[in-house]
Every structure is written in C-alpha cells, then in structure tokens.
C-alpha cells in the first residue's frame, strides 16, 4: 500500500466559447511527493447529459467539441497521481453561443444564482400562469352573474312602475251611460244637462208625445 496524498485541486478556467465548443485551461497542482499522471474532466448540462474525459498530464488546455448551441454546461476537473485522484474543482459554468452568431452571457467567475436555473424558473412561471388564468376566469364568471341578476330587476321595475293613463273611476261603458230609462219621472229632471245626449233624447220624446 502506497502512503501519500493525492494531488490538490487544479485551477480550472474557461478561455473560449463558440456555438459548439468550449476551451478550458488549468494550472498543474504542485505535488512534491508524486507528480500528476493524468486529469479527469467531467462536464454536462442541467438536464442530465453528463460526460467525462481523461487528459494526459503533459497538457494544460483542451477544447471540448460537439456541444449543443445555446446550452449551459458545467465543467469540473480533478488530478491523479500515484496515490489516487484528488478532489474535484467547483463547477465552472459556461453557455455556448447561439448558432446564428448570438450568445448568452457566460458565467465564468462565479456560480449562476439558483433563481436563474431551469428547475426554479419553470415552476415559478407555471405557477404565475395558473394564478393569472384563475383570476381572469373568476372575474368573467362574476361579471356574467352580475349581468344576469341585474336584467330581471330592470324588467320587473318596468312592469311595476307602469301607471295607467285612464282613471277607472271616471270611465263608463256604453251600458252604464245609456241604461237609464227616458220616461222615468224620478230621474228625468236630474238627467237634463246642457249639451248632454240624455237631454236630447228627452226632448225628442216630448215632441213625439205632443
């Protein structure tokens, strides 16, 4: 069994980005006990596409190709010596350029905040969409119910507020107006009014009797 420490963490950094590749550079960790014999690079996307690559100790740079355009990748690196593999470096994020020449901002100096990550943004946007949709539907239903309730009230008010133009107490039918006997002595004098049809009928009857 070998007694010794594995190498320290390499100092990894991103030096170039295109739509399908990312270039990495690192400094070899110093180890007096045992020199580095190889490096291991692990990289992948947030949706689970993970890869790994072994690099000879003689190299201090590499370009990873066949990457997806407009995609965020995380890179980390560890060194090996005779005593084993050392610790991995922190994830180094980088976003490949769009195929049309545009690019997303590349986070090289610091880790991307959690509120920019897909697993956080997508649920938040979906929740806001559901809430706004529910509010709009509730408002539309309330508006419709208000309109349906107000329409019968207007019709009922129109029916109850109608006032007939003729007072039934002053109206007379034909039977009531001409049902008085012309030859009745008790009512003949009281029914004689100037210009009335009753008096005309009474005068006509008197002339016929004479």
TrEMBL record:
One of its GO terms (cellular component) is plasma membrane. GO terms for molecular function: ATP binding; transmembrane-ephrin receptor activity. Residues 6-99 form the Fibronectin type-III domain. The keyword Cell membrane does not apply. Residues 182-210 are annotated as: Disordered. Pfam families: fn3. The keyword Transmembrane applies. It is a single-pass membrane protein. It is found in: Membrane. CDD domains: FN3 (cd00063). The chain crosses the membrane at residues 119-142. PROSITE patterns: FN3. InterPro entries: Ephrin_rcpt_TKs, FN3_dom, FN3_sf, Ig-like_fold. Keywords: ATP-binding, Kinase, Membrane, Nucleotide-binding, Receptor, Transferase, Transmembrane, Transmembrane helix. Residues 199-210 have a biased composition (Polar residues). Its main location: membrane. One of its GO terms (biological process) is axon guidance. It comes from the Eukaryota. This is Putative tyrosine kinase eph ephrin receptor family.
